[in-house]
Amino acid sequence: xxxxxxxxxxxxxxxxxxxxxxxxxxxxxxxxxxxxxxxxxxxxxxxxxxxxxxxxxxxxxxxxxxxxxxxxxxxxxxxxxxxxxxxxxxxxxxxxxxxxxxxxxxxxxxxxxxxxxxxxxxxxxxxxxxxxxxxxxxxxxxxxxxxxxxxxxxxxx
Length: 157
Fold this sequence. Notes:
Layout: E1 3-7, H1 13-24, E2 31-42, E3 54-64, E4 67-77, H2 80-93, H3 98-104, E5 107-113, H4 120-133, E6 137-138, H5 148-155
Antiparallel strand pairs: 1-5, 1-6, 2-3, 3-4, 4-5
């Protein structure tokens, strides 16, 4: 299963670095993120006078304490399949109002990792992504939706 973060802002490296810095201020050790690669691709569907949808891919190296991993973030336009997953997760996890927040987000970011996905490092990254994107996180088990606080709780901080 995939890990998704809904977002009200488009994916770009500088915003993520600022968010990681803010989230890292309240941690006992620094949360370091290095950008390994970034690409944007215009997508079909924009009409005259309307901004075309952009899909993006960002590769990052994340370090916290003694953990390091490479992650990929893939941005797509938020659409009915992702919204349906959010609604179902909201019901399962009794995360009232989080599906409505997900619906207001024009973007959805899929988080991938070279190694194990559900780790402390991943949840700290999700805390930064949720803080920056102002949207909920949908974990791989799709059991609920949560925000910054829920991601930090899963990380144990």
